[in-house]
Amino acid sequence: MSNYSRIAIVEDDNSFALFLKTILEEGGYKVEIYDDPEIALKKLPDFNPQLVITDLKMPKMDGIAFLEKAKNIFPNIPFIVITAYGTIPSAVEAMKKGAADYITKPLSSPEDFLFLIEKLLSTTKKTEIIEKPFEIPPFEILFAGIEDIYEKILQVASTETTVILYGETGTGKSAIAKAIHLLSGRKGNFVEINCAAIPETLIESELFGYEKGAFTGAIKSKSGKIEMAKDGTLFLDEIAEMNLTIQAKLLRVLQDKTFERLGGLTPIKTNARFIVATNKDLLELVKQGKFREDLYFRINVFPIIIPPLRERKEAILKIAEYIINKLSQKMGKEPLKLSKKSKEILKNYPWPGNIRELENILERNLILAKGKELDIELEFIDIKRVYEDKEISGSLKEMEKKAILEALKKTGGNKKKAAELLGISLRTLYYKIKEYNLEAL
Ligand SMILES: Nc1ncnc2c1ncn2[C@@H]1O[C@H](COP(=O)(O)OP(=O)(O)OP(=O)(O)O)[C@@H](O)[C@H]1O
C-alpha cells in the first residue's frame, strides 16, 4: 500500500462520490467526501489530504474556482478533476490551472483509476507534503462563530500582505496566525516572537540576530527570528511593546525586505511574511507618540479583529466541548458532558481572559470532577486576583459587575439562583454586591 493515504473527493453527485470512495477504500486509502465546495475549503485543512479529486460542475462554486482556491491551500499535492464525457475542454482548462489529470464520469475502468492515483501519489515528493508542524484546533472549532474571518483569511493567506490581528488576550490570535501560515502554503517555518514576554533589551537581538563581538557576551554569531522565518512566516505578538528604535528598524525590513544582524554590515534579504498582533489600540498609541505612524500604516494593510469570547456566545459550548474532549484525552479520562447549569454559566460569564481562561477553568474543573456530568465552578475571586495588576482590571470589573447585574435580572433578584448561574458561592456574590454597590437591587 502507498505511504500516502488521505484522499478528498469534492463532488455533489453523491452516488458517484460513494462509488469512487468504495474503489479507493478497497485500494487502501482513507477517503472523505465533501458535497459542497465551500464547506470543503473549510474542512480540508483539518483532513490534510495528499490528493484531491474534484468535480468541475457544482452548484455553489464551479470546480475551476474551487481548484484555484484549494491549490492556494495545498500547492504541492495533485488534483484530479472529474469531467463528464464530451466536456474534455473544461478538463483541459483545469489542467492549465494546475490539475494533474482528469477522470471521466462514468468511470471507464476502476483499475485504471487506481493506477492513476498510485502514479500521481508516487510522483509527489514526500518532502513536499507539509505536515502540520504545530497543534491548533480544527478549523471548524478555531473559527466557530467567526466564520467571516475564515473567509477573509482564505483571501489573504497566499499573498505577501502583512496581516494585523487585533484582539484581547487569549482570543486565539496566535492560533489564527498559525492557520494563516498553514493556508499560505509557504514552505518555510512559522516563527513566533512575543515582544511582551522578552526584556526590551533583548527584542532587537532576538529579531535581527547578531555577529560575534557585537556586544559583550556575543561570543559567537547568531541568527535572529527574521532569518529563521525565511520563506516562512514571522508572527510578532504584542507588537506595541517594541520601542521606537526597533519599530524604525522593523519598518525598514517591511519596506525593503532587508536588514543587518547587530554588529553586522552585510545586508540580508528576507522573504518572510509578517503577521503582527496586538491587544492595544495602536492608533491611540500613535497619538501618544508611542507608536510610529509610518509603521502603523505599513502594518495596518489587512486588519482582522478577533472578537472576545463573550461576543462568540453561540460558539462557546462548541469550543468548550472540544477543549473538554482534548483535555480528557490527555488525562486519560472519559470526556464528561457539561451539566445544564454549567452550560448556562459558560454562556453568561464575560470571559475577560477569553479562550485561554476557558481552557484553564475547564482544566481545573476536569481535575476536580467527581460526578457523571461536569459542574463548572468559576471561582470569581481567583480570577479577579489574577487580573488585578493588569490594565484591563478596570474593564474586568465592569464586566464582572455587568455579569452580576444580568444574573440578578435573569433570576428576578434571587441571589441564591444568581450565584448558581454565575458559578460562585452565595458568600462571594454578597461580597461582590457590596463591592459594586448593588445592594439597592
Ligand atoms: N476556537 C478555539 N477553540 C479552542 N481552542 C482555542 C480556540 N482559539 C484559541 N484556542 C486556544 O486558546 C489558547 C489561547 O489562544 P492563543 O494563544 O492563540 O491566544 P492569543 O490571542 O494569541 O493570546 P495572547 O494575546 O495572550 O498572546 C490556546 O491554547 C489556543 O490553542
TrEMBL record:
It comes from the Bacteria. One of its GO terms (biological process) is regulation of DNA-templated transcription. InterPro entries: AAA+_ATPase, AAA_lid_NorR, CheY-like_superfamily, Homeodomain-like_sf, HTH_Fis, P-loop_NTPase, Sig_transdc_resp-reg_receiver, Sigma_54_int. Residues 146-367 form the Sigma-54 factor interaction domain. Keywords: ATP-binding, Nucleotide-binding, Phosphoprotein, Transcription, Transcription regulation. Gene3D superfamilies: 1.10.8.60, 3.40.50.2300, Homeodomain-like, P-loop containing nucleotide triphosphate hydrolases. The modification 4-aspartylphosphate is found at D55. It holds the Pfam family Response_reg. Residues 6-120 form the Response regulatory domain. One of its GO terms (molecular function) is ATP binding. This is Two component, sigma54 specific, transcriptional regulator, Fis family.
